[in-house]
Write a structure and sequence with these properties.
With 190 residues, the protein is mainly beta. It has two helices and ten strands, in the order ββββαββαββββ.
Length: 190
C-alpha cells in the first residue's frame, strides 16, 4: 500500500479576519465534536483523491472524499475533507436556485472515511458494505463553495465488522452526525 505523506494546501490554512488576525476555517463548538481539532493542521493532506483509491473502492462521481487530513496514533480516528464544487451532478436538481449537498451524500462521505480507517487498520484494501445507519441527524445545509470536513471515530472494530461515529462540519456549523455499521464483503460468495 502507498505510504501516507503530508502535503500542505495553503487554501486550507487559517484565514484572515477583519481585525487582521487569523481564524481556523473550522470553528465549531468543541463540545459537539467527536474529537478535538485543536492542533490539527487543516491544510495538511496525508492522502489525496488518487492515493485514496488504493484504500477505498469508490470512483468517479461517487468518490466523495477528496483527502485525509489527520489520523490519531492508533488509526481509530480520522479527519477527511471535501471541497463542495458548483459543477457536481446534484447541483442543478437539488435544489434549483439553492443548491444543497444531499444528506445521503454527506453520510456517504463519512462512510468513505470510515471505510478507509477500517481498511487501514486491517492493513489492506477490503470491500466494505454498510449495514446500518443509526441516529442520523442533519443540522445545517452544505452548499457549493463550502469546505466540508468529516470526522470519524471507530466505536468497534474487528477483522470483519466495524461501527463508526461520523460527523460533517462546515465553518462553525455541525452539518450532520450518524453512527455507521459495516462489514467486509471479501471472502463471501454472492
Amino acid at each position: 500500500m502507498p505510504e501516507a505523506t503530508a502535503e500542505s494546501h495553503p487554501s486550507e490554512s487559517p484565514v484572515n479576519t477583519p481585525d487582521g488576525g487569523t481564524a481556523s476555517p473550522v470553528n465549531v463548538d468543541r463540545r459537539l465534536l467527536l474529537f478535538d481539532l485543536d492542533g490539527i493542521d487543516l491544510g495538511q493532506r496525508l492522502l489525496n483523491r488518487k492515493q485514496l483509491q488504493a484504500w477505498i473502492p469508490h470512483r468517479g462521481v461517487m468518490q466523495l472524499l477528496d483527502s485525509v487530513i489527520w489520523l490519531n496514533d492508533d488509526k481509530s480516528c480520522g479527519l477527511g475533507h471535501r471541497t463542495i464544487r458548483d459543477d457536481e451532478f446534484w447541483v442543478e436538481g437539488h435544489f434549483p436556485e439553492r443548491a444543497a449537498f444531499p444528506g445521503v451524500l454527506m453520510v456517504e462521505t463519512g462512510a468513505q472515511l470510515a471505510a478507509y480507517l477500517f481498511n487501514l487498520r486491517l492493513g489492506g484494501s477490503q470491500l466494505p458494505a454498510f449495514l446500518r445507519i443509526e441516529n442520523c441527524s442533519f443540522r445545517s445545509h452544505v452548499r457549493p463553495g463550502d469546505e466540508f470536513y468529516v470526522l470519524c471515530r471507530e466505536v468497534k472494530f474487528n477483522k470483519r465488522r466495524f461501527v463508526s461515529d461520523v460527523q460533517g462540519i462546515v465553518g462553525d456549523r455541525l452539518a450532520f452526525q450518524a453512527r455507521l455499521s459495516g462489514m467486509t464483503l471479501e471472502g463471501r460468495s454472492s
